[in-house]
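tool_log.txt
---
The assistant was asked to compare two proteins side by side. It first ran the structure predictor on the initial sequence, then on the second. Raw inputs and outputs are pasted verbatim so the downstream comparison step can read them without reformatting.
(1)
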Amino acid sequence: MSLHTPHIDWFGLAPVFALVGTSFVALLCAVLVPRAVRRIAAASVAIAGFTAGIVLAIWLYVDSANGHTIVSGAFYRDRWTALGQIILCGIGLATTLLAVEHVPGWGRNADPARRDDHVAEFFALLLASAAGMVFFVGAANLMTLFLSLEWFSIALYVMCAIDYDLESSLEAGLKYLIVGSFGAGALLFGSALVYGATGKISFHGIAAAAASQGLTGDTFVVVGIALIVAGLGFKMSAAPFHMWTPDVYEGAPTTVTAWMSSATKVAALLLTFRLMTTAFAGDQHLWGWAFAIVATASLAIGNFAALVQRNVKRILAYSSISHAGFMLIGLSAGSALGGRALMYYLIPYSAMAFGSFAVVAARERELGVPVTLDNLAGFGWERPFLGVAMWFFMFGFAGLPLGGGFVGKFYVFAAAYQHGWVWLVIVGVLATLVSLYYYLGIVRAMYMRPAAELALAGGSPPRERLLQLTVGAALVVSFGSLFAVQPLIDLARHAASSLPL
């Protein structure tokens, strides 16, 4: 008896293997490397892993003009996947540099002698979660989708709770675990309904079965789509599936929050767009309206809830919910323009989200307490570079023409307008006007509070060269994307051409 195994395009999976391999090596550092050099050794391994992932993903982008599935149709090797992998590995590299100076597990009540006990495990978890996301964006069937979702989610649950000397970190990990489990359950049940109706789990197979069997509008398929939308909505922090986001973003170590706020959105939104336009193209009139409603709810809840917050991490969490709404405007259009708009938007957004949380991490380390609008006072004068970077990020979030956020919003509005949804463009513009209040409020807190209100930290601020390097890189990407619009749009167009639009 002979065993027949499928042909595997190993190079198509190279970024995943690079991250998984270095994750194992980083974990070995926890037991084989002396404590004195453990942080540097594990961080070096992570830097090598993410750098290899970027190089391999760029190679795949260039070499995958004609996209196709590999591993018996379980994974897409195309430019949509490759560009998503480049963005994810870039965020991972920046997170690694930030974590060298802001290692989670350094709780305020931690014993200084034990601060590096779990540093290697953190970098191993970071690499493992990135590997899961890199695999997730290329998923070509419902089984691969669910397994890779759980892969990176489990790593994120542990990362949120890794600062176990703080109750807020443990609470964040537990909340994310419980709510994430409900989201995963909804996704799995929805996938089961779709499989029961079509008898297929591959995205192309589902579309072909729905077309040949006349399943457009079928009850099982429609309910399955609704549950899948809900499950993925949890990961992208879209309302009304957002309830975990403010508490988890506030309680988790700020380095972990910076990673989650940008990377999980990239993975969830890119996979959702591919899934909907490939597997459920015949039901676009249903899920298009569903995502338009979710986008409207995200814009309303995210912006109005942010108005009353004082904690800066919670303000940025609600901002994240709001921006999920903006990106879902492009997704709801379900068109080639919508795909390009979504891919472009994710590039400056990821940089702004990561950079803003990195700045919060710097202030948090100075004060040793959560950062609020009150104790942010004077920060712009104390740390001029970080202050300028923060107001660039805030203006970019608001959609002012000081970064790629302006072009990103214009692009998704154009996709909605082309689709005939002028009302959704109006909702987006109104949401942008509301958001100006709290974004400018952060800038005001840094620069414009009276001297009597200042609550300055004693002593000189730490140097934090790597943090400033990551913030500088985020600033270059967010601001530079305004001037490199055409090259980035070309990349997004080539990536979106891999989809059946």
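(2)
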Amino acid sequence: MISAWMMCMRPVMLVASLIILLSLHSVPEAAAQLGKPEGLYYKSWAIVIGIEQYVLAPSIAGAVKDARKVAEAFRQLGFDEVVELYDKDASSRRMQQLLNDMLPRKVGRMDRLVLVYVGHAGVMQDSEGQDRGYLVPFDAPVNSSAKSITVEQLKEFSRRSASKHTLLILDAPVYGWETTEAPGLSLEGRMAPESDTDRRAVQVVSAASRGEAVGRSDQGSRLVNALLGGLSGAADLDGNGWLMASELGSYLVRQVEEASGGLQHPSCLRIDGDGDMVLVEGKASRGSAVK
């Protein structure tokens, strides 16, 4: 009797399990982010792309080694998800999938997202004759934008991403953002930077200006070396314990210009919002201003 009853119930249990699984699968990964997190962010994402051995473009010695160092630096900062794409894993198809599907689907509205790119960049002209930069994937040529990741695509990605704060660090001369330099922090902002964390921001650091080469040496890329030093605390320009993306950008511009003898001029821009990403949180309690 018991065995027969269990045999009758088994199809019902299977159907119920299937319904549960289907309902869970249909819920977006980041949909559970309701209300405010206990800290500044629910989740911290670092996407690190390094391309050294191109199929259709010159190789960049040390690019993958540099990118691995950056990935480890973000792990040391406590980032929850560090996604690494190197050489063949950074193909055009994979990068498009990352920007158009995976990240918009998984990154939540109370997350922070940093994308670091170490590789080639190219330049194209848009329909109005304006120069626009693009990233060159592993299997794409430098002199064609057909399989590239354009500035317009990066802008669209930043608009689609739900992340409260997004920071793009591009170790390449990428331009055409059509924006102005981010304003410096006010005195109030420097004293209570946690207030900036409630406002959306998309910030961009590009390693060089139009027509400039990205400097490298046996010690690696100028920008990456400065980035590693900045993340370790050197970029906390006001010494208040908070490392903001705007501070890091200003630090990288200054350090790279000095290291290159004025031959390489990075840019630090805010292309959306008026907030500021926190990379290292100071000791001040959230919501309380320092007096």
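---
observation on (2): The longest strand covers residues 44-50. The longest helix spans residues 2-26.
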